[in-house]
Amino acid sequence: MSLLKRSLVLAVLMLAPTTLAQPSGELVIYSGRSEPLIVPVIRLFEQQTGIKVTLQSGTATALANLILQEQPNPRADVFIANDAGTLEFLKLKDALQPYLSEQIRKIPEHFRARDGSWLGVSGRSRVIMYNTKLLKPEELPKSVFELTAPTWKDKIAMATTRNESVIAWVTALRLVKGDEFTKDYLLKLKANGVVTLNGHTDVRKAVGRGEFPLGLVNHYYYHLELRDGSPVGVIYPDQGPTDIGVFVNAAGAAIVKNAKHLREAQRFLDFLASPEAQKLFAELNFEYPLLPGVPVAPGVRPLETLKLMPVRLDELGKELEKTLKLLDEVGLG
Questions:
Q1: Superfamily assignment of 3-123+250-305 in CATH?
Q2: Is 222 annotated as a binding residue?
Q3: Where is the signal peptide (predicted)?
């Protein structure tokens, strides 16, 4: 059994899938996204099309493994994931149905599979958030690689390395800096006392309360904590001329191979790439809309102003198991 399957089997067993009726005009979606972030989008789709959606939520990695188990007779028509790596992994397992429409082609190629197997629907950058009462502007790090310095010992929080966004970030580091460098970097972070918490919400709240001066998060967690009234700021790291840039990942969606409601699934993916849905993603969670011309939420730094890490998102999936193995060797938590 592969490393990925060993790591996911318990989570899959806890999903307890139910039998889902699939008459004409319905759509079954498996979603790894938090329901408050995706349900408003689904409701708008239902209102506009009259198609009834059945939603099954869970962790993205467990649902991905469930899709593999259910082939060639899947329950799900569409899969929504928190990151491109999970989608690309399913593509490599031949579990997705490519679809490239005129609307989907409007999303920049960097944020979708080249063969149409999956579509990025919203973006998120990996940033460092900080507590403004604990740190002065002149004290702030400018690179994630500065976080191994003695200055930051026991002062950094991050989400568990089981988190999809963390796994994707580590994979991107491997692709840009190599396995040896990345493993050494993570070991130095561990030795410097970085604390891993259950999730990014825990990290942003801990930084907001002043329990840690710094936290590694997706950019929208900073905005959520700022909206809650906490004294926090944000650093977009590695933006210098010789720096690697900030990693920008995408939450995305795909049609499951052998989907029973292919037409409805195609309509849903076209809808996700529409201005209406893209605007909702920006407003609900401060994420980057990926359709050109749709504005970011007020206060969010526009994506086009960032220096991006030179990694194609459709390169992440094939590296997933190697990243999991490296993280297991590091034992960061």
A1: Periplasmic binding protein-like II (3.40.190.10)
A2: no
A3: 1-21
